[in-house]
Write a structure and sequence with these properties.
The protein has helices at 21-25, 55-59; strands at residues 7-11, 31-36, 39-44, 65-69. The chain is an alpha+beta fold. It has one domain (7-69): 2-Layer Sandwich (Alpha-Beta Plaits), CATH 3.30.70.20. The chain has a two-stranded antiparallel ribbon. The chain has a two-stranded antiparallel ribbon with strand order 2-3. The structure holds iron/sulfur cluster (SF4) (2 copies). The site of one iron/sulfur cluster has 14 residues, from α2.
Length: 72
């Protein structure tokens, strides 16, 4: 079993524009765009597959992703 990530992205749907930059930036492809309340929003599909690298948070032009530390 791979160890769980030390941090997971938390996406703020109010700030997310659905641009998809974070989806493209995620090496293990665990983010996707989904329609929620008639808007496209980035969603973490597979938290167990996330490495906690924070590339998505760095890439987001709208400051919609913050990394939340996980208790290990
Ligand atoms: S922290 Fe890294 S692995 Fe996790 S969703 Fe963001 S880009 Fe993908
Ligand atoms: S990069 Fe930011 S604004 Fe664009 S889809 Fe991802 S979370 Fe939303």
């Amino acid at each position: 079993m791979p160890s769980p990530p030390a941090a997971l992205p938390v996406i703020n749907p109010a700030r997310c524009t659905g641009c998809g930059w974070c989806v493209a930036a995620c090496p293990p492809h665990v983010l996707s765009l989904q329609v929620q309340q008639w808007r496209k929003t980035s969603v973490l599909d597979d938290p167990a597959g996330c490495t906690g690298c924070a590339r998505c948070a760095v890439r987001c032009p709208f400051g919609a992703i913050r990394m939340r530390r996980e208790a290990l």
